[in-house]
Amino acid sequence: MIIPLQNYLVIEQEGNEEKMINGIIIPPKIMPEKQFEGTIVSVGPYVKDRDLKAGMKVAVNAYGAMIRRKEGKKEYVLIRDVDVIAILTGESADPNMRFTVDIDSHRG
Questions:
Q1: Is beta strand 74-80 parallel, antiparallel or unpaired with respect to 24-26?
Q2: Are 92 and 100 in contact (CB under 8 A)?
Q3: Which residues of 21-50 are buried (b: 16+ CB within 10 A; e: fewer)?
Q4: Which among 12, 2, 5, 9 has a CA at the least distance from the CA of 81?
Q5: Is 2 inside a domain boundary?
Q6: Per-residue pLDDT for 19 more than 60?
Q7: Hey, which of 37, 42, 47, 78 has its CA 20 to 30 A from 22?
């Protein structure tokens, strides 16, 4: 298990499955995305945004991921709190959108 220190978070990454393009299976490591979705597993003691809590679904800047660790079928990622780009709050009616963001509840 990864225990975050300072301003780091542990995220359980979701959607890490293979994709099919024109009948060819592309593993996620070959075709990385700029961001990924996941659930916060644990929060370091110096995380600046106190709204970030274990159990929340978030969108993360994939380029900021520090350590990836696989345990069984689950993949965990250690990131800095500033690499969280959105808190995910529900399903979208638009099938082309992957998530909706509730901006008003997170303004300071």
A1: unpaired
A2: yes
A3: eeeeeeeeeeeeeeebbbebbbbbeebeee
A4: 9
A5: no
A6: no
A7: 37
Q: Is the pTM of this model over 0.70?
A: no
Query: What is the domain-level CATH number for residue 47?
Result: 2.30.33.40
Helix (H) or strand (E) holding 13, with range, is strand 8-14
Give per-residue pLDDT as tens, 35-54: 788 999 999 999 988 889 99
What spatial distance separates the first Cα and last Cα of the chain, rounded to whole Å? 33
| Alpha carbon distance 35, 65 (integer Å) | 10
- Position 1 in a domain: no
